[in-house]
Design goal:
GO terms for molecular function: catalytic activity. Helices cover about 35% and strands about 20% of the residues. It is of the alpha+beta class and about 1000 residues long. Among the domains are: about 1-65, Orthogonal Bundle (Non-ribosomal Peptide Synthetase Peptidyl Carrier Protein, Chain A); about 75-235, Chloramphenicol acetyltransferase-like domain (Chloramphenicol Acetyltransferase); about 525-710, Chloramphenicol acetyltransferase-like domain (Chloramphenicol Acetyltransferase, 2-Layer Sandwich); about 725-745 and about 755-890 and about 915-970, Nonribosomal peptide synthetase, condensation domain (Chloramphenicol Acetyltransferase, 2-Layer Sandwich), CATH 3.30.559.30. A six-stranded mixed β-sheet has the order 10-16-15-13-11-12, with helices on both faces. Strands 21-22-23-18-29-28 form a six-stranded mixed β-sheet, sandwiched between helices. A hairpin with a 7-residue loop joins strand 19 (about 610) and strand 20 (about 620).
Length: about 1000
């Protein structure tokens, strides 16, 4: 409806289809009308129907966090744009916007009056009264509904004429609360609406047009005309602006705005006594459909910019060429100003009023001649990227007016730039009730756009700017046209000069389109935040990669990259492999497509990791990820299947460890017999964690069986969250957690890379002990994970002879305030240290409580990189053992459909720690123990786990018992100690007392 398209796919980009910020508001508005709550910023961030659907909520009517609305009656505080208008010289009684509407064929005068009456009663600002107060300002007041007579506002005429138009405008009287005046031209079925600009803006016209269609539909059905509630009133919005003007974050922008205001003018300013609307020049021009269509879709998408950005950059280019100047071009820019993020629950989607914000920008566009612009050469693309970054560097436009007009403590003065630019967005797409000829729409004929929506004033009113461009995209039956209306001070410039600037602007726009048609565009530094790369480096990467995005690394990814890059060619450290046995009829092509579909959903799984010649490593997310797929047939007789499978698996593991040049995720399908296959899924741990694996597997087999899947949550969302965290607070917390910790807890060698051979053994803790662990955790108001950590700490103390020990554990980084984090696929974990201090008097309960308190103190800071925890505590490392409780959700039900079953899944992985234990929940607690074989042998690992089991038994038997009394040794180990210490001799009596010195005498 909003874009006026017959079909929009659920995964089509809103901006690729021609959307902009104003249309995003319309999408949110119409969604809310249907009981689906979303925000314009959601449309911006998600960009697709599927993405918005995932985070939107469904309600009955408007509510659930959205402003339920207020009546908007009484005094209204003047907003920055109103104060700006008041500061102008001249009478503003007829400062208006005008729109010509084509009515449905059967509309009569009484029908029009009925609809206009509904508009007047629904929208408070259409009943605004404006009077001068004693202090020289305006007092603004909104009267009760019903106080304005719609019939007096709508005058019927037989034909449109200049005299009728002038008369309609002259009837506006803000001091009497007459903000709307209209002409009804019955023979043409046209309605000319003239509304004082204090009560309307470009977005408001869209709201009013929707209201006409909604009201007309109700009226024709014999229903009462009930228009949508305004939500947040203009009155409340104005009050919020006054509060926000003194916000610290806004005040901090003052210095930046002062620099912009100080940019010298490139044209002389208007002379109020000479340069009026009576003497102004006017020029209206239109761009062809094909170029316009590219400007509102392909060009912004190519440069990851907005339509207004592209138009404004071309506008600056035209002026730089016209003036022959390399100086910055100062431009006064208008924006819609409906920034709903200002406060929670704000809903301006149905609010009529003048929300416009105006602010200056200064663009320097140099370094290329005009022939390069016209031809769309590479230099033009570089300039567009640079200008786009200049625009991104300016503060939020709204803050300029807040500081200049609402904060008396900030000295922000200066003349407006003499050149003005205003893009009003897209007009003409049919409204929600627009069907055939039975709808209200903006006229395609009669008044041109220049007259229809640009402000019109008393002809003696001084011009606002030396040159002003108002532009909009008008949807017609032939397609979209960019319409531009130029107004200028005739004492400063003549028609020939403005015509030349207009031609240069269109040439620049055509050049940009030519550049995009030849593959131009690309990312800029502001697109990849929080990653930090120069434009030059981004362009270099673009030449060697098809880039969709560039992301920084999570803290754990940085650590894994270090280990992987340090051992290149030295093994398969951190390669994770799942070997899945499939029985039954298998469609190999469909399985490959299913894995490819999963990769398309989560392109971060195909990231390339770049670190050479960079201050910080980054991961390159490919635009069209290609699955590394291998298919092997081992069903022939005489083949040593197991040996061949291991060879394939080893090759896959080696491949994923080359994370700079190859995909970190691969899949191999091995046929081993009739109806028997093995699917080997291999990935580097740097892209995927244990929580994500079940999600990924479910998606693969759901796609294989043709099931629909929800929209994936982008991995970027986690990286953005991480970048917003308070690192200083995290450092303070971890420094406090390890205060006084003077030596690392090490059980292995000094080899931090763990390059030696690895061994893996599995153990099970008896069911009765497992059950007792759960009960102990419950009685301590803690978790099984914490109880197991306490036992591991006790065992480490015995192993190392230390009472203050540390070990690592893995924590999930799936914040509740990151929408959809529970279904995100990627590496969303971190390794953090656990510290345990024990004394001879420490009991099980004491230690569990100690660990629980330590967890509570650091849980909000588990995102900090482990090497940073080491650094702030003055340690090269804190531990070389890892204990992990694998409590992430799993799907134990093996997929089975169409005769295909999974009857076995095995996995293989290894890390660099000397000793690591993964505890797996179940009726019997499972323990996967991985170890360096040059530090431990199998026998010592078995003895270690036997001791661990005895510690668990002692802890659960008497939680109040001192841990120092828990005996971890078995009877055989105690007997061995007796022999080693010659306990038989030590236990015999000595007949003649003798001193130690005497023995050696």
């Amino acid at each position: 409806e909003v874009l006026g398209l017959e079909r929009v796919g659920v995964d089509d980009s809103f901006f690729d289809l021609g959307g902009d910020s104003i249309l995003a508001m319309q999408v949110a508005s119409r969604a809310r009308d249907g009981g689906v709550v979303c925000w314009p910023r959601d449309v911006f961030t998600e960009q697709t129907v599927a993405g918005v659907a995932r985070i939107a909520s469904v309600v009955d009517g408007i509510g659930d966090g959205i402003d339920d609305g207020d009546d908007g009656l009484g005094e209204v505080l003047a907003t920055p744009i109103m104060r700006w208008l008041h500061s102008r010289v001249g009478q503003v009684g007829q400062f208006n916007q005008t729109m010509l509407l084509q009515a449905p064929a059967r509309v009569g005068y009484d029908d029009v009056v009925h609809l206009v009456s509904a508009l007047l009663d629904r929208h408070p600002m259409l009943r605004l009264q404006v009077v001068e107060n004693s202090s020289g300002g305006w007092t603004l007041f909104v009267a009760e509904p019903g106080c304005v007579d719609a019939r007096a506002c709508v005058q019927p005429v037989a034909e449109m004429s200049d005299a009728a138009l002038v008369g309609t405008r002259s009837r506006l009287d803000p001091t009497a609360g007459v903000m709307l005046s209209a002409l009804w031209v019955a023979p043409a079925a046209q309605l000319l609406l003239v509304i004082h600009h204090l009560a309307v803006d470009g977005v408001s016209w869209r709201i009013l047009l929707d209201d006409f269609n909604r009201g007309w539909g109700q009226y024709c059905s014999g229903q009462e005309v009930v228009l949508a509630s305004e939500g947040t009133s203009y009155q409340r919005w104005a009050s919020l602006l006054v509060e926000h003007a003194r916000c610290g974050a806004v005040v901090d922008q003052a210095a930046a705005w002062k620099q912009v205001v100080a940019v010298p003018r490139v044209l002389p300013a208007v002379q109020p006594a000479v340069d009026t609307f009576a003497t102004a020049g006017h020029l209206s021009v239109s761009l062809d459909v094909d170029t316009t269509r590219m400007l509102v879709s392909d060009a912004p998408a190519a440069f990851h910019a907005g339509v207004q950005d592209i138009l404004l950059i071309a506008f600056a280019l035209a002026w730089a060429e016209f003036l022959g100047s390399s100086a910055p071009i100062g431009i006064d820019v208008e924006g819609h100003g409906r920034n709903e993020h200002l406060a929670s629950g704000i809903d301006l989607s149905h609010t009529v009023g003048w929300f416009t914000v105006k602010y200056p920008v200064a663009l320097r566009v140099v370094g290329l001649d005009w022939a390069q612009v016209v031809a769309g050469e590479a230099a033009l693309g570089a300039m567009i990227k640079d200008a786009k970054e200049q625009l991104r560097a300016f503060p939020e436009g709204m803050t300029y007016g807040l500081l200049r007009y609402l904060n008396t403590e900030v000295d922000l003065t200066g003349d407006d730039p003499p050149i003005a630019f205003n893009y009003l967005g897209r007009f003409g797409a049919p409204g929600p009730a627009s069907v055939g000829d039975d709808s209200w729409r903006v006229c395609d004929e009669g008044l041109l756009f220049a007259d229809a929506v640009s402000p019109t004033l008393d002809v003696q009113f001084p011009l606002m700017h030396t040159v002003e461009l108002n532009a909009a995209t008008m949807d017609t039956e032939a397609g979209p046209h960019l319409r531009a209306n130029w107004t200028w001070a005739s004492s400063k410039l003549d028609r020939e000069q403005i015509t030349r600037v207009s031609e240069l602007w269109f040439q620049a726009l055509n050049g940009i389109c030519a550049h995009v048609r030849h593959g131009g565009g690309g990312l800029t530094p502001s697109d990849i935040v929080p990653a930090r790369l120069s434009q030059e480096r981004i362009d270099q990467l673009h030449r060697s990669h098809q880039i969709a995005d560039v992301l920084p690394l999570t803290p754990l990814q940085q650590g894994l990259l270090f280990y992987t890059s340090s051992v290149q060619g030295g093994g398969d450290l951190y390669a994770v492999q799942f070997d899945i046995s499939l029985n039954g009829q298998l469609d190999r092509r469909r399985l490959r497509e299913a894995v490819q579909a999963a990769l398309n959903r989560h392109p971060n799984l195909a990231a390339r990791f770049i670190f050479e010649h960079l201050d910080e490593p980054v991961q390159i997310i490919p635009r069209d990820p290609v699955l590394a797929w291998r298919q092997v047939d081992l069903a022939a007789d005489g083949v040593d299947v197991d040996e061949q499978i291991e060879r394939v698996c080893a090759g896959e593991r080696a491949a994923v460890c080359d994370i700079t040049h190859q995909s970190p995720l691969r899949a191999a399908l091995i046929r081993i017999g009739q109806g028997r296959h093995r699917m080997v899924l291999t990935f580097h741990h740097i892209v995927l964690d244990g929580w994500s694996v079940p999600i990924l597997m479910r998606e693969i087999f759901a796609s294989y069986h043709g099931q629909l899947l929800p929209t994936p949550v982008p991995y970027r969302r986690l990286l953005t969250w991480l970048a917003d965290q308070d690192l200083d607070a995290a450092r303070v917390a971890w420094r406090a957690a390890f205060a006084g910790f003077d030596a690392p807890t090490l059980v292995g060698s000094s080899d931090q890379l763990g390059l030696g051979a690895r061994g893996v053994e599995w153990f099970r803790i008896p069911a009765e002990i497992t059950e007792a662990l759960t009960e102990l955790a419950r009685s301590c108001h803690s978790t099984v994970s914490t109880v197991l950590q306490a036992a591991w700490a006790q065992l480490l103390g015995w192993l190392t002879g230390r009472c203050d020990v540390a070990f690592g554990t893995t924590v999930s980084i799936r914040p509740a305030d990151v929408a959809g984090s529970e279904s995100m696929v990627g590496l969303l974990i971190n390794t953090v240290p656990v510290r345990a201090c024990m004394t001879p008097a420490t009991t099980t309960v004491d230690l569990v409580e100690q660990l629980q308190h330590a967890y509570n103190d650091t849980v909000e800071h588990q995102h900090l990189a482990l090497n940073e925890v080491h650094r702030i505590n003055g340690q090269g490392r804190l531990f070389d053992t890892l204990f992990v409780y694998e409590n992430y959700p799993t799907d134990n039900a093996a997929p089975e459909a169409h005769g295909l079953t999974i009857n076995d899944i095995s996995s293989r992985e290894c890390n660099h720690y000397a000793l690591s234990v993964q505890a797996v929940p179940g009726g019997e607690l499972g323990l996967r123990v991985e170890f360096q074989t040059d530090v431990f042998d199998v026998a010592s690992i078995c003895r270690l786990i036997e001791r661990f089991e005895r510690v668990l038994l002692g802890m659960t038997a008497d939680p109040q018992q001192r841990l120092s009394l828990v005996d971890a040794l078995g009877e055989g180990e105690r007997a061995q100690l007796d022999v080693m210490s010659n306990r038989a001799v030590l236990g015999s009596s000595v007949a003649i007392p003798v001193s130690v010195p005497a023995v050696w005498a």
